[in-house]
Amino acid sequence: MSSTDTGKTAGPAGTGDPAGEDTPASRETRDARELGEAASQLSTAPVETVVPGSFGGARTPGALGRIAWTGREVTGWVRWIWRQLTSMRVALILLFLLSLGAIPGSLIPQSGTDAAKVQEFKDAHSALGPLYDRLGLFHVYSSVWFSAIYILLFVSLIGCIVPRTWQFVGQLRGRPPGAPRRLTRLPAYTTWRTAVEPEQVREIALKVLRQKRFRAHVDKDAVAAEKGYLRETGNLLFHIALIVMLVAFAWGQLFRSEGDKLIVEGDGFSNTLLSYDDFKSGNLFSTDDLTPFSFDLKNFTGTYERTGPNKGTPRTYQAAITYSEGAYGKEHEALVKVNEPLVIGDTKVYLTAHGYAPTVTVRDGKGDVVFHGAVPLLPLDSNVTSQGAVKVMDGYRNAQGKSEQLGFSAFFVPTFAGAGKGDMFSQFPALDYPVLALSGFHGSLGVDAGLPQNVYQLETSHMKQFKDAKGEILKSRLRPGETMKLPDGAGSITFDKDIKEWANFQVTQQPGSDWALAGAFAAILGLAGSLFIQRRRVWVRATTGDDGVTVVEMAGLGRSESAKLPEELGDLAALVHEQAPTKPDEDAAPTDADAEPPVPAAEGAEKQ
After folding, report:
1. Short-list 469, 446, 473, 472, CA closest to 458
2. Which of 80, 425, 521, 576 lies most in the core, judged by the most C-beta atoms within 10 Å?
3. CB within 8 A of 372, min separation 6: which ones?
């Protein structure tokens, strides 16, 4: 390594020597300043220049001095707090707290998702329930503390990104700083002597660096070049993508809607609020935001594994529908499968569940039909053992001519094991051997009171159970086409051969999901750029030595020390050396004319 100062120059005033002489102290000060300028703006991260307690400075005597000092102190504290809030360190802490705060939202029942489970949790945990309620753990995403973290993170990211973006734009419009006087102090350095004129060496270096996609220009006796701007671009892209994701998440939560609808084969659905079995929405959602469409369930198809360890596992699980958009839209056919929803505008229709709806016919004592239809029953296990209720609310009169209501507790298995072969549980989810077990009640179902009821359960507090001639509870297991007679001429109920299937659909409208997905991909891309791209600068100085031979010096400086910087500098030096080779010493022994001159090794491995 060779870098020798030739001659003495007068140091500028203020460099450490009062008389302006080129003393070792002044040279050290000047070199440190030049080195700092060379490394300036390698990052857009703000530099903290003050610390708490030094904002007010010296306080002058008197009341005015106290007021002025207090004002400077308060202003300084406000600025310091703002700098801390908008620092990357605090942004990462807030992002970690946001992720940590989302954990109870996944583990604890949420009132906005399932209020029934929340109440069950409170009933089962008399001590934890009130505590969780006070902490807002049953509504995490709308709680005060979660919203505070969310808003602080949003403010922190914006306050951090905006000034850094403007600073980075300024760097892009500017040029790399000039070369320090002593390049030997940089982490990567190499030098050699050549017969090529200094101006030509600089032109060669400028061309080589630009071919390697460096931003380069000639500054006095050196070429200054810089590369790796995409690192800061990736850093800014990552944080902008986080803001996009936060905005998209907030937008989706405020304007989202989610509803469930159970549909029997042959029935339909219209996307109106009254059509849903269950509906939840965000705080700013309006019914006018519902996408206008409708669809009919033509049939549901389900096939299952017959043998092996996966017996009973669905192989085909799909719903064939016809749908139309708008009030007078053209009908289209579609298949809705698990994880393959029907997409209409911003709305997605998911297939979430399936079951059976046995068709029953209820007649009064005169033989008149008082009820006929498919009754959806809820599955209890993976083999679709199902339970529900048949309710006859109008049109029925008993043998005495008195108006009553009927209710039947229903238990259905698509594949019955057979009489005397165990309990009433299905052995397979397909309709191999369907059996419907019924027991009947008569009286008042309680629906006239105006109180909401579960359609799959009977309210028997005002009803009497039918009993047979022996005084035992009337119950029967029916095969398709069989009938259970009610005692004393009360009528009958028939299990018809037409067994329909039902499908449950979840209709979701989540605006901003596409933006959130794009933000996630952009965040990954930006993070990769900020981690794997290195910002670095290279200087090539060509000057005439005391003996008239051109001295070439090359040095590199990166934002952080890396083994790749000396390697890259060596490659660049080799390219420049090809066109400006080392001049052999005149006193050296003669060598083979065809031998290539040695390429100088980058001395960046030596840490300065």
Report:
1. 446
2. 576
3. 359, 360, 361, 362
List of the chain residues with pLDDT < 50: 1-20, 588, 591, 593-595, 603-608
Q: What is the pLDDT of residue 4?
A: 37
Strand partners, 485: 492
CA gyration radius for the chain? 41
CA of 300: how far to CAs of 9, 69, 360, 504, in Å? 92, 78, 20, 11
Q: Distance (Å, rounded) from C-alpha 584 to C-alpha 575?
A: 18
Structure tokens at 533: 């791209």
| Segments in 422-511 forming alpha helices (H) | none
The pair of structure tokens assigned to 370 is: 């008082």
Alpha carbon distance 495, 347 (integer Å)? 38
Q: Which positions ≥6 away from 13 have C-beta within 8 Å?
A: 20
DSSP, collapsed to helix, strand or coil, labels residue 52 as: coil
Q: Where are the beta strands (DSSP E) in 338-459?
A: 342-344, 347-363, 369-374, 378-379, 386-392, 405-413, 435-443
Three-class SS of residue 62? coil
Cα 30 from Cα 567, distance rounded (Å): 29
Cβ-based neighbour number of residue 442 at 10 Å = 20
Rounded to whole angstroms, how far apart are CA atoms 435 and 420?
14
Which ranges of 62-114 does DSSP label H, i.e. alpha helix?
63-85, 88-107
Sheet holding 222-227, edge to edge: 188-194, 550-558, 536-544, 222-227, 215-219
Length of the chain, in residues: 608
> Which tokens belong to 418?
């057979």
> What is the CA 169 to chain-centroid distance, rounded?
29
DSSP 425: -
Per-residue confidence (pLDDT) for residue 50, from 0 to 100: 52
Which pLDDT belongs to residue 420?
A: 64
Whole-model pTM? 0.66
Report the DSSP beta bridge partners of residue 415: 433
Rounded Cα gap, residues 34 and 13, in angstroms: 15
Per-residue pLDDT reduced to its tens digit, 376-435:
999 999 999 999 999 998 899 888 888 999 999 999 999 998 766 667 889 999 999 999
> Tokens 């659909």 label which residue?
505
End-to-end CA distance of the chain: 12
Bridge-based pairing state of the strands 268-270 and 222-227: unpaired
Predicted confidence at residue 438, as pLDDT, reads 95
**Cβ(347)–Cβ(509) below 8 Å:** yes
Backbone angles phi, psi at 571, to 5 degrees: -65, -45
Q: Give the torsion through C-alpha atoms of 41, 223, 558, 164, to 10 deg.
A: 20
Under a CB-based contact definition with an 8 Å cutoff, are residues 196 and 579 in contact? yes
Give Cβ neighbours of residue 308 (< 8 Å, ≥ 6 apart).
none
Over the stretch 383-395, which tens digit does the pLDDT of each residue have? 999 999 999 988 9
